[in-house]
Request: fold
Amino acid sequence: MTTTARRVFFREHGRPVTVDLAEVDNQRTSFEGGFVYRGQIMMESLPHRIREQANNFRIDVWAVGQSGRSEWLVLNDNALFVGNVHTIYVRFLAHH
Reply:
């Protein structure tokens, strides 16, 4: 799979959030000075602009916590909550 350069910005609860549509090495345990967490996300939880790119793919979301703190990506069926997280990496994996 090739890595895209597309980056999408949106706001969650009035706060800017960066979503990077890039493949992330699933063996990495740290990224940009923080910790990387992996989580599954439902298609409906993504902003519409990302959903348009995600048809026929499985989505993994990686959240990078700030300052080495253990910040977790919290998901529900309707929204994406990021807590104290400055970047979310979204990777699209083709269904097999």
The CA atoms of residues 74 and 81 lie 5 Å apart. Residues 1-24+44-86 form one domain. The beta strands are 7-12, 15-21, 30-31, 34-40, 57-65, 74-75, 80-81, 85-94.
